[in-house]
Amino acid sequence: MILRLEKHITGSQFSAIQQSLMEIGYKANEVRTQHEHYLIALGKNEFDIRKIGSLPGVADIHQVSDDYQLVSRKWKVNRTMIDLGDGVFVGNGQVAIMAGPCSIENEKQVELTLQHLSDNGVRIMRGGVFKPRSSPYAFRGLGIDGLKMWHQAAKASGIKIISEVMQVSQIAEMHDYVDVFQVGARNTQNFNLLDELGKVDKPVMIKRGISGTIEELLYSAEYVFSAGNEKIILCERGIRTYEKATRNTFDINAIPILKDKSHLPVVADPSHGIGLREFVEPVALAAVIAGADGIIYETHQKPNEAASDGQQTLDFSESARLIKKIRNTFELREGS
Ligand code: PEP
Ligand code: MN
Q1: Is the pLDDT of residue 284 over 80?
Q2: Which of 135, 189, 272 to mutate to test the pocket of ligand 1 (most atoms within 8 A of CB)?
Q3: How confident is the model at residue 336 (pLDDT cuts 50, 70, 90)?
């Protein structure tokens, strides 16, 4: 059960609400986010909801039958829209496009990618500076200096940045240079990281875990929300299955299911989802039809020379074609 509290609730009103919840056998968890003050009350006993809902200091009350609460669609009328500033949104009823290399490599690459995105009206660039690599000998990213260089160039182009944060200590150093923190598939259940991302006033995109269920992804989002950050994007990026023909199995089902279960925007990552350049496009378009609020994919001026994930990376002409097709497919979906 979610109680949204009045902005100017007094200390004694708050205590009285807590007391009433205790009396009906409910355990209350206080949550303060950027915008709101909530009590998440968990319990099983039957009670008259009007008795709690009418207490002074309660703005509204919602019974949520899901175990995750704040990220559930069951209590929120409007879907969450993420505002990145300067007219850039995710979840505003349009389809957001986020594109860029797997890894940020050098200034030239950043400049060429920004130019490509600007030419095609894409406002969000992806790229990793802290790279989770299966082998410790593989390229592990340019680190914070690479992010600073990228930020300066992106700012001049009016393009927003999404980049992966791998550990708690990186949050503060990255904070001023990213517009969205990405939590990678290997960190979806790094609960310390999620807790700390709950304390920042910046959007967080959480990728589904490599072998994670849809429910586990929602619980990960609940960590961030309950720690204080409402600005969350969910991302389906494929899961590990017994199938060997593709890098991962992109779970198209996850898109309508996540949109049904949660009010948070849902983005699809076809690059990691299938892992094969020639099939990124059909998977991306299928995800748009399935209801995705955005597509994130990898592109590079010379994919075969990319420092990571070249096999699933589009060149700029393939990327330009995909951008057009994403927009056309979105129009088709919306029936306009
Ligand atoms: C990435 O986006 O480059 C990445 C490492 O993704 P994932 O965490 O989904 O594997
Ligand atoms: Mn990658």
Answers
A1: yes
A2: 272
A3: low
User: How far from the centroid of its chain's Cα atoms is residue 196's Cα?
Assistant: 15
Q: Which of 98, 102, 167 to mutate to test the pocket of ligand 1 (most atoms within 8 A of CB)?
A: 102
Ligand nearest to the CA of 308: 2
Q: Please say whether the beta carbons of 180 and 212 come within 8 A.
A: no
Instruction: Tell whether ligand 1 has an atom less than 6 A from the beta carbon of residue 162.
Output: no
Ligand 2: distance of its center to the CA of 7 in Å?
42
CATH 3.20.20.70 residue spans of the chain: 82-335
Give the burial class of 149: count Cβ atoms within 10 A of its Cβ; 0-12 exposed, 13-18 middle, 19 or more buried: middle
* Domain 2-62, CATH number (from 3.30.70, 1.20.120, 3.40.50, 3.30.310): 3.30.70
Token pair in block for residue 132: 């989770």
Q: Is the pTM of this model over 0.70?
A: yes
Cα separation, 264 vs 90, in Å, equals 10
Q: Give the Å distance between the CA of 309 and the centre of ligand 2.
A: 5
Using the predicted structure, report yes or no on whether residue 198 has a pLDDT greater than 80.
yes
The DSSP annotation for 253-301 comes to THHHHHHHHBSS-EEE-HHHHH--GGGHHHHHHHHHHTT-SEEEEEB-S
